[in-house]
Amino acid sequence: MTLTTRPASSRPPAVAGLFYPDDPAELRGEVQRLLAAAGGAGALPPKAPKALIVPHAGYVYSGPIAAQAY
Questions:
Q1: Which helix (H) or strand (E) holds 54?
Q2: Alpha helix positions (H), the chain
Q3: Tens digits of residue pLDDT in 56-70
Q4: Predicted structure pTM score
Q5: 19 has which bridge partners?
Q6: Neighbour tally for 16: CB within 10 Å
Q7: Nearest CA-CA partner of 26 in 48, 52, 59, 50
Q8: Residue 13 gets which letter from DSSP?
Q9: CB neighbours of 62 closer than 8 A, spacing ≥ 6?
């Protein structure tokens, strides 16, 4: 599934354009920028975490922290 298609059983996004960009290309670019800015190479823990607690507010508020988690 790509960002431009949805299964028939999914509901339309409720906050697209408010908490994150509503344009798929812009959203993809923002996520890529956030992940790139988070870096992380060499900062991995010695063991993989069993769980992550990641914020999910609007990207402008929680995007950098969420990107660091992922």
A1: none
A2: 24-38, 59-69
A3: 888 888 999 999 888
A4: 0.66
A5: none
A6: 13
A7: 59
A8: P
A9: 54, 55, 56
CA gap 4, 1 in Å, rounded: 8
Radius of gyration of the chain (CA): 14
Residue 21: what residue type? P
CB within 8 Å of 55: residues ≥ 6 apart: 61, 62, 65, 66
Closest alpha carbon to 67 in 31, 42, 43, 41: 31
Instruction: Give yes or no for a contact between 37 and 64, defined as CB atoms under 8 angstroms apart.
Output: yes
CB 47 within 8 A of CB 22: no
Tokens of 6: 């949805």
Per-residue model confidence as pLDDT tens digits over 25-47:
999 999 999 999 988 665 666 78
Q: Rounded to the nearest 5 degrees, what angle is found at the Cα of 23, between the Cα atoms of 21 and 28?
A: 75
